[in-house]
Amino acid sequence: MLDKFFSTEPNFVLTVARIVLGVVMIPHGAQKLFGWFGGYGWGATLGFFSSQGIPVIIGILVILAESFGALGLILGFCTKLSAFGIGITMIGAAIFQRQNGFFMNWFGNQGGEGYEYHVLAIGLAFVLFFLGGGSLSLDQLISEKLK
Q1: How far apart, in Å, are the Cα atoms of 117 and each of 16, 90, 103, 113, 114?
Q2: Of 39, 107, 120, 126, whose CB neighbour count within 10 A is largest?
Q3: Selection from 114, 118, 115 nearest residue 105 by Cα
Q4: Residue 83 to residue 89: CA distance in whole angstroms
Q5: pLDDT tens profile 51-100
Q6: Angle at Cα 3 formed by Cα 58 and Cα 135, nearest 5°?
Q7: Looking at the whole model, is its pTM more than 0.90?
Q8: Confidence category of residue 122, pLDDT binned at 50, 70, 90
Q9: How far are the Cα atoms of 4, 21, 24, 32 from residue 98, in angstroms, in the given order?
């Protein structure tokens, strides 16, 4: 069971997908966890989620997925779990922002951002969830040790 959790293909394409998704997600997590990059931090983020009808436990899971999940992707540690958390988070975010349409708000003429970014993140997370973190991942090292 544990060997399947850490299993991965020694594939550099997966490595690129893993690192790119992690690097893109970690600032979002840092906004919610620490208030960095113009974010509001843990308490205010949970307060915002609550004001939108999102249960506190879901808010906590979102913050953990976007911060520690993104770090896990960058390191290639628990890639499948990290990708699952980020994928579910992005599905929720896409649903939450669906009223703004598909496209990002490039020209400021929409009520908010669309969900195209979320679809890309979901796609990368899907691949990583099923295939693992690829080459140069801690998962690959652990998988080799388990064999």
Answers
A1: 18, 9, 8, 9, 8
A2: 39
A3: 114
A4: 10
A5: 999 999 999 999 999 999 999 999 999 999 999 999 999 999 999 989 99
A6: 85
A7: yes
A8: very high
A9: 35, 21, 21, 21
